Structures are given as structure tokens and as C-alpha cells.
Amino acid sequence: MGEIAEYKKTLAETLKARAEILEKSDLPKLKEDLRAYHTGFASLYNLYVKKGLIHEDPYKQETKIAELEVPSSATFNESDKVDQLTRRLAAYDNQLDFLVNFYQFSVEFITMDRIKRILALVRYIDWVRLSPDSQNPMTRALAEMTNSIKAGTDSLTMSVISESLANFNRSFTPIIVHLKALADYQREAYKLELRDVSSELPDAEASNLSVLKKKMAQAKPGFPFYSDLAEEVLREDYSNEGLALREAVLKKLHVAEVKPKSAKPQVSFKEVLLEGIQGLGGTAATLSEVAVKVDENQAILENQKRGFVEKMKQIIRNIFNKTPKPVVYEVEYTDPVKGIPVKEKVDYLVFRSDLDRKIRTLAPLSARGTAASKLETIQEEQLVGFLERNVREVQSLHKTLGALDDFFKAAASKEDRDKIKGIKPELGTLKNAIVRANSKRHEYSAQKEEEEQLRRLGVNPES
Questions:
Q1: Exposure string over 47-85, b if 16+ CB within 10 A, otherwise e
Q2: Which of 399 and 269 is assigned the larger pLDDT?
Q3: Which of 19-33, 127-141, 147-161, 248-262 comes out lowest in average pLDDT?
Q4: How high is the pLDDT of residue 461?
Q5: d(C-alpha 55, C-alpha 422), whole Å
């Protein structure tokens, strides 16, 4: 069986080269495509909550995830529809968030089992064929909800829906392609492990499936045994067509030598930054909606606190244009780095002034108008600083608004609690915009780093 030993050596070398390509190219792209997929879903999820089609799951933020699990797709009764969709979609959003933010995108970590979990997750809802006639209960329900939002809705909401569905269409096929490439690698890597085990068996027993299974359990306790892949090994190593099958495997995994192209299209790094800035500019509309809600909530709270004398003082202060009395709230939020609660005093009037200023800054950036045209004339380094500064400022607003939302709900009296307007859907929209803007910033940095590496190697990146 010298030819099998030689094949194992060649296969091991081929797999090593393939693993390097997967780590450097396929897996980073897979993560970005999954992030785009999650961004599209999160935007729609927040719309469903905002429009009252599903409820805000009170336990969503408390869920602890150890491994990917696909939510139920079982049929539900119409009377139970809202509750079922609330729980399932909250769980789905959590699973996608866990996947793109906590999963290790490495060849070693994403095993066959995890590939199946990711595949099941992205196929949970058929966004490409989103139809109320779908046989899948979840696809059918989301098609109905999405269509109900489209009916007579405003242009901004229609834009969110269109962008989300476009994200699904753009990212779905690449995700499947990257997962298939990873699955092809993992299948052959697993078969190589099987061959290591079978090589310890006598020739008469090595081709016996049940003996191989027993030997596998002894040699690698807890290691899964896939009968279909074991049968492939036996056909490739012991059947008359084995040589052709082994050659087909090596051909499938072969990494072609990359030759420099004579005319590589130049990538506009500045365009990536402008896309990030434009996307962040779109948060102006969301921040404007939030400003109205928090003002109403703040008014309810202040009216609750003031007695008759204090109200008269405020009226007199307004008549004589005196400086309004500072309104300071002590709010609490969780430090994103240390994970500990932090208390902070917020001067509401100062905060609202900052919020209005930021809305005025961001609004002109949401479309290719005069302000955006001016940005195109700025140097890349300045654009990077501009994007980073605005991301930080929107993140700060997001943090304070989330803390104020919790504060207003907790501080309102029992009688006024139902009047307080929550802003969780809007906060979700802001978070997604921040993630997208950061993604563009990282994309720019990666492109610049790649360009610099090529220059160090003496390769002209523009040639």
C-alpha cells in the first residue's frame, strides 16, 4: 500500500496549502458576509418591533449562548403568532450576533458540525424567496410582516427594507460558497485522520467499516464517526476506481499559483471611507426620532417631580428669559470594556444641545449632496479622522441614550410608566449603523495594510 502512503503525504501538503488560503481569504470574507447578513436582519428586526408587529423580548439581553442553536421553525397557531415570533426572532438575532462577534473564524474551530450549524442558521429564513406562499412557517410569517410594513410606508422605512433585503441577496451566495470550500477542506482533513487510524489495522481489517469504526472509538475517544466519509475512504483506497477518485480529491483542493495580473483594477480606498461616513449620516433621521421621544419622557418625569411653586418659578423664568435651571440625572450603564456598571451624571439640557448639534452635522452626509462632495476633496488621512471622530461621538450618544431610556422607565411613577416611550428599536438601528461604519473603517485599514505589504515586497499594487 505504498501508493496510499504517498497519497496521504501529498494530501497532507495540499490540505496545509488550502488551510492557509482559507485562513487568509475565505474565512475573513465569510465573517464579513455573515456580518452583512446580520446587519440586514437586525435592521428589519428593529422595524418589526418599532411597528408593533412583534414585542420587545424582555429576556433578550439576558440570554447566555455557549454554542449556535437554530431557533424553532415549527408551525404555530395564529393566536400564538406574535409571542412565537417575538421569542424566535429575538433568539435568531442573538444567535447571529454571537456568530459574528464571538465565534472563532479559524479552520481549526469551524468543524463539520459548526459548518452545519452556520448553514442551518442562514437558511432559517428564505430571504431570497421571501413569499407569503412559502411552505416554511418563519419565511411565510416574515414575508407577511415585511409586506405589511411596505404598504403606505415612508421613504426612509422603505429604504431600510430595501437595503436589508439587498444585504441578504448580496451575502447569501458568497456565504454558501465559502462554507462549501470550508466543508470540502474539513471532509478531506477528516478522511486523512481516518487513514491515520486505518493504517494501524492489518490489511485484511482496514477495509472493514465496522472494524474501522471500533478502532476509531478506541484511538480517538469522543471523535465523531461519519459513516459516509469512511465509505469514501474505503472506495478511494481499495476500489478499482480508487486512483481516479484520489486524483479528483487533489484536483478539488489544489491551490493554483497566483500570478500578478498586468492590469489590476485600482481600488478607491477613499470610496470605502465615504461609504462609512454616508452610512453614519443616515443616523440623523433616527436620532431626530429619538430626540422627540426622550424630550416627551423627560417632560413627563419633570412634571411628575415639580410641585405648584416650582412650576410657577419655571413660568416666571421663561417669561423673563432667565437661564433654565440645570436638569441633572444620575444614570447607569455597563462599561463595554470592563463589563462593570458605571454611574454618570448627565446634564440633560447640555446633552440635548449636543444631540441637536450632531443631528445637524450628520444630516447633510446621508446623501451625495454639497457636504458629501466637499468630503471627496479631503485627503484620506483627514477622512479617517473624521469617520473615527463621528463614530466615537455617535457611540457616546448611543451609550447615554440607552442609559437615559433605562432611567426614565425606572424613575417614572406607576401612573406615568405607560406614557414613557421606549427607544430600544432606534438604539438597535444606531448600533447597526455604528457597526457598518466601523466595518468600513476596518476595510479601509486592511486595504492600506495590504498595499503597504505589497510595496515592501517590491510589488506595485497599481500594476
A1: bbbbeebbeebeeeeeeeeeebebbeeeebeeeebeebb
A2: 399
A3: 248-262
A4: 54
A5: 12
* Torsion from C-alpha of 351, 356, 361, 364, nearest 10 degrees: 150
Dist CA 110 CA 126 (whole Å): 23
Take residue 281 and report the three cell numbers written for it: 449620516
Of 255, 222, 188, 198, nearest in space to 11 by CA: 188
At residue 111, does pLDDT exceed 90? yes
Q: DSSP letter at 109?
A: T
Concatenating the DSSP letter of every residue in 313-357 gives: HHHHHHHTTPPPPP-EEEEEEE-TTT--EEEEEEEHHHHHHHHHH
Between 462 and 445, where is the model more confident?
445
Whether the pTM exceeds 0.70: the reply is no
Q: What pLDDT does 262 receive? A: 47
The model's pLDDT over 44-72, given as tens digits with 9 standing for 90+, comes to 898 899 889 999 888 888 888 999 999 99
**Strand (E) or helix (H) holding 5:** helix 2-21
> Cell triple for residue 239?
476500489
Residue type, 390: N
Long-range contacts made by residues 100-107, C-beta under 8 angstroms, separation at least 24? 100/31, 100/34, 100/35, 100/38, 102/65, 103/68, 105/27, 105/28, 105/30, 105/31, 106/23, 106/27, 107/19, 107/22, 107/23, 107/27, 107/182, 107/185, 107/186
| pLDDT on residue 263 | 45
Location of C-alpha cell 452556520? 118
